[in-house]
């Protein structure tokens, strides 16, 4: 496990580019938390992480932890080009997070014919190519309503 580039399936998936602007996000994902960047001036939430606020241009920010509750906004099912890092056909969804920002991730464990805009989903995490931990959309786990 010392150098993942030398084992595992050959993949054309690019390696993550982790910078001081997005490192907090990938670190949280590894710990099972979905964080959303929040402007320290106007409090606008933004994703993906960026150095400054698109609304007021402030570079001051903090984060809020998402409930990981999401609603499917749109989705697509990818057949080509196949990459050994994924199983095909591969469903990829764009969701509206409860907090208001959007997120794109693959959808796991749901028959594609059941996918429909407006359905409730939950953001989980899964290990992807190169050992990276990224969000994955799933059925809500239930429990507390
Ligand atoms: Zn702002």
TrEMBL record:
Residues 27-58 form the ChsH2 rubredoxin-like zinc ribbon domain. Residues 64-125 form the ChsH2 C-terminal OB-fold domain. Pfam families: OB_ChsH2_C, zf-ChsH2. InterPro entries: ChsH2_C, ChsH2_Znr, NA-bd_OB-fold, Thioester_dehydratase-like. It comes from the Bacteria. Signal peptide: none annotated. This is OB-fold domain-containing protein.
